[in-house]
Amino acid sequence: MNINTKEVEEIKDPLEQALAADSMLSVAERIVEHLKEIRGAAMRAHARNVGGHQASIDLEMNRTSMYRAIRNGVSSAVIERDEPFWQREAMALNGRLRALGKTREGIDQWWLQIIQPELDHKTPMQAWNIGNREAVLALVP
To answer: Minimal CB count within 10 Å: which of 2, 5, 17, 140?
Structure first.
């Protein structure tokens, strides 16, 4: 894949060049976030194929646990949990989302696809993975 920056590099006015570069950077950042979502969906699909349905839907898994599930081909139920407190908090959050009428697919979409202004325009999963867990929990009363 090649991103062509030639047009931006050829702009003579430094301010215009900076603004054009910033615009291109914003697009690149959105592409990176989208690629992370695609990677996550592919990881879940693979986990479902090798480790069963539970491994693919267990959104409380951190990336290390998900890779371990894929590598070992086992259900997430037998994977050693990291950070049990936060796992319980995420499960409770999922329960609150279900109580609000969200389906399993709706909960997955909320975690992975809905960008939240309160989370610096990140999805809840992105914010969760960088450690902004309290802010994610605060989104759902």
So the answer is: 2
